[in-house]
Amino acid sequence: MIRLCVLGTGGMANAHAREFKKIKDVKIVACCDIRREAAAKFAETHGIPAVYADLGKMLDKEKPDAVTNVTIDAAHCLTSLEIIKRKIHVLCEKPLATNAGDAWKMVAAAKKARVINMVNFSYRGSCALQKVSEIVRKGTIGEIRHVEASYLQSWLSSADWGIWHKKPGMLWRCCKKAGSKGDLGDIGVHIFDFMTFVCGDIRKLDCRLKTFDKGIGTDKINGMKLDANDSFCALVEFKNGAIGTIHSSRWATGHANSLRLRVFGTEGAVCIDLDKSWGEYEICAGEKDKTAFKWKTVKAPKTPNIYQRFIRSIRTGKNDLPDFATAAKVQDYLDSCFKSDDTGKTIKI
Hints:
Largest sheet: 9 strands, mixed
Helix content: 25-40%
Radius of gyration: 21 Å
Structural class: alpha/beta
Low-confidence stretches: none
């Protein structure tokens, strides 16, 4: 039996609890939140026997095998280090940390403690993405030449998810002082992982960020200045020599939450569009006569989700991906994007 604790009891924690409860011989023994009332309500919802408002007390008393860390972004580093120093396995929500320096500290700590460490990049739950990564890395489409990646949302230009400036959970994402790193920090972390999981590490990049007038007659609401970036575009060069574009925006009318990746190689191409399907991808390859290339849609085989793979890693002792080092590399890319925009220069990673 693997004894698991849940740290942080906000919205995403519900998904963690539901998924871990489905796995045989895994028991959620406690949950913790600095808001004890929220933790108590969460425990009642999910049938969790013990409630804490102090992480250290929970770890020392419950002595769990693993913790799933679903705290706010700014708390990921310190709380994960507290878990790791007790040699407890940890699954952390994305982003791993708010900067690359902290992320790499977490990598070093996990390596020293020899604990299983993984990060929940939720879109890796797509079996189509898993298969496309396998296809590209096997060389089915030849050497990669060109890549296009995009993550588009529209909540600043439409009411898909409600009126953004009237919803605290959306409003704070527009304010640096509230802890937001804008569109780049919020969903850029996803699309960079999405792209590099398939295409490999990035060697250098050039990025531009943009914060637009929100069209509501003010640049400040409830004392929060609306100064976090709304959109970003980056030109990247991979270590394998390929080049690509990656972009994201909160102003993409008609796209509530759209992720797409297209990879073009010397022997073919692949495309994954999560708006269309999480379980299917498109491929244009394998034709002897290169004048006869045609796109076809393929259904991907099912793959284990992040929660299943985390537990499997604990049981086998073999750390699956994405691990902390994977997430730290993504943080390197995000930090480099901010630096590139600040300096107007191409940044070597």
